[in-house]
Amino acid sequence: MAIIKPFKLEEVRDALTAIGVHGLTVTEVKGYGRQKGHTEIYRGAEYAVSFLPKLKIEVAVNADVADKVVEAIVAAARTGQIGDGKIFVYNLDSAVRIRTGETDKDAL
Amino acid sequence: MKLTRLLTGLAAALATAMFIGLAAPAAVAQDNPAAAPAAPAAAPAATAPAAAAAAKPAPPATPACAGAVAAIPETDKFAAVPAVPAVLTNCTPSGGDTAWMLTSMALVLMMTIPGLGLFYGGMVRKKNVGDTVMTSFAITCLVTVLFAVVTYSLAFTAGSPFVGGFSRVFLQGILSDINNGGIGNPNSLAPTIPETVYMCFQMTFAIITPALIAGAFAERMKFSAMLWFIGLWAIFVYAPIAHWLWGPDGIFNSSNDAAWVKVLDFAGGTVVHINAGVAGLVAAIMLGKREDTGPGHNMVLTFIGAGLLWVGWFGFNAGSAVSAGVQAGMAMTVTQIATAVAALTWMFVEWGHRGKPTVIGICSGAVAGLVAITPASGFVGPIGAMAIGVACGVGCYWGATGLKHMFGYDDALDCFGVHGVGGMIGAFLTGVFAVQQYGGTAGLMEGNPHQVVNQCIGIITVIVYDAVVTVIILAIIKAVIGLRVSDEIERDGLDLALHGEVVH
Predict the structure, then answer these.
(1) Number of domains present in the structure of chain A
(2) Residue A9's domain spans which residues?
(3) Residues of A with CB below 8 A from B501's CB?
């Protein structure tokens, strides 16, 4: 699971496709980290917006390629600026493809 | 950063103040119409190229207007109302015409805000909606001020054949001529309404023309650069071109007997649409392509905007008769017909070409039809309107989908594809389908091929002048403050970076 800058989505997708990942789920999310928010103006009053729009992408892959996937996402999503996002790697118990009933590795 | 902004603001304020300071003495000097009715023509002739105009006794408007005023007997219905000063009585010979023109002015203003703002606003991405609608609003305000200060005078008073004089700078003397000989409205196109109403009506045209250009540079131009560009363009491009076609002594004015070439442009095919379209094309090329593009965020806004444009266009076209009479009725009729035909044409062409009829498509087709019938309304009949509708439905579809990809410029919202191409098709076909019985001039179909040649001369001259001056203006702005926002701002959206607001 990774949190990235919204405009980096296409580059991340291309990078993942290039290393053979064939599926990706994207969610629009808001959050904050070291990058603080910005201010918006409404009739002269400034309002602090402390949660910034990001994209959450979720990719399920086999453990043996997990490192490669992380590297690919880091390479594609990095701008070097504050607010590039984070990647969290965790274990999956199982997976099922609904159409066929295939499980685990076959379902990916 | 803040200091730069402050300096930019100060510079803008200073420039405005200097401009007003320079213009004011000139205005005062000119504000002396004297007793002679010929004064409006003679006074501005002080400008160098106007020497020829000075030889003329008066703008052609004067006799017509004086006649109209003289024709009103002492027992005029307005004279019975004691509250109305005599000066207004004399300059309002027709209550019906004046009422219609007051209405038309409001309709045409509605075309820009909110019409055009919504039409364009629905076609940009969500991150740029605020900037797009605010561009329409800011242009409305900016051009209103410029028009009152100088561009009305430059466009619509007699001066030289190329540009008007300074007799109406700051709108001075807009009623005083009535006291000095009862001339009334000095414009030959508006003999039966107060000059104030004519001025406001024309002001709304001067507003929408530069606002249309915004379609070409949307989603990437600096807001400050946009204001400079539009302000300079309104003075150095719109004013002279409007004078050529509509000024009392303009070189192309079809109702000016001394015109060099009589070009038919009823409501602004050349002055408004070709003019805006070509300036848009130049702006799109000089700004370069957007970093990334995507589908518009809300087609319903575009639908509402197109609907408001259509309704407002009756003020635009039927209002350009400058009277509530027979010609306005035919202008209204052909406007409705051509628009419907063009919308259907675009829809069917797109359906056949891409497989689906789209909302943006039918809305764009309607606007293309409105554009193309603009120069022709008042001169052509219903059959001509149908032909023009089909021609521009196909032509503008190609302009918006084929042409721009062929040459690779990024005309974001198809300002040139719809207004430039549609304006050219309409201006050209006006020369083909003009009917003597409706507008007083015969076209090619009635055996007058000469009118087509005249139309082409008008179209080409406007394109060349517009393109050259627009390039100069944009090059100067590019050198001084730059035209484009940074890549980062473009990526995150103009709304937040330039205006500190987001739509939702």
Answers:
(1) 1
(2) 2-107
(3) 40-42
CB–CB contact A41 B501 (8 Å):
yes
CA-nearest residue to B488 within chain A is A7
B502, closest residue in chain A (CA to CA)? A40
Residue B406: which CATH number?
1.10.3430.10
Query: Which CATH number do you get for residue A10?
Result: 3.30.70.120
Strand duo A38-42 + A25-31: pairing = unpaired
In a domain, B210, yes or no: yes
Q: Residue for token digits 């484009």?
A: B484
Cβ of A38 under 8 Å from any chain B Cβ? yes
Out of B292, B496, B499, the one facing A38 most closely (by C-beta) is B496
Q: State in Å, rounded, how far the first CA of chain B is from the last one.
A: 27
pLDDT in tens, B27-58: 443 433 333 333 333 333 333 333 333 333 33
In angstroms, the separation between the Cα of residue A36 and the nearest Cα of chain B is: 15
Whether the predicted pLDDT of B435 surpasses 60: yes
Mean predicted confidence (pLDDT) in B193-205: 92
Question: Taking CA atoms, what residue in B is nearest to A10?
Answer: B292
If one counts the domains in chain B, the total is: 1
pLDDT tens for each residue of B131-157: 999 999 999 999 999 999 999 999 998
Whether B24 is covered by a domain: the verdict is no
SS3 B151: helix
Residue B180 scores a pLDDT above 70: no
Give the range of the structural domain holding residue B111, as residue numbers without chain letter.
Answer: 31-499
pLDDT for B132 equals 97
Query: Is the Cβ–Cβ distance between B116 and B371 less than 8 Å?
Result: no
Give the residue among B307, B302, B273, B381 at the shortest CA–CA distance from B337.
B381
- Report if residue B251 sits inside a domain: yes
**How close is the nearest chain A Cα to the Cα of B292, in Å?**
10
Please tell me the distance from the alpha carbon of residue A1 to that of residue A24, in angstroms, as a whole number. Answer: 10
Bridge partner residues of A52 (DSSP): A31
What is the model's pLDDT at position B179?
Answer: 55
Amino acid at A7: F
Residue B5 lies in a domain: no
Q: Do A41 and B502 touch (CB under 8 A)?
A: no
Inter-chain CB proximity B501 and A7 less than 8 Å = no
User: What's residue B95's pLDDT?
Assistant: 84
B290 interaction partners in chain A (CB closer than 8 Å): none
Q: Is the peptide bond before B114 cis (omega within 30 degrees of 0)?
A: yes
pLDDT < 50 regions, chain A: none
- For residue A58, report the phi and psi dihedrals to the nearest 5 degrees: -120, 125
- pLDDT at residue B462 in the model: 97
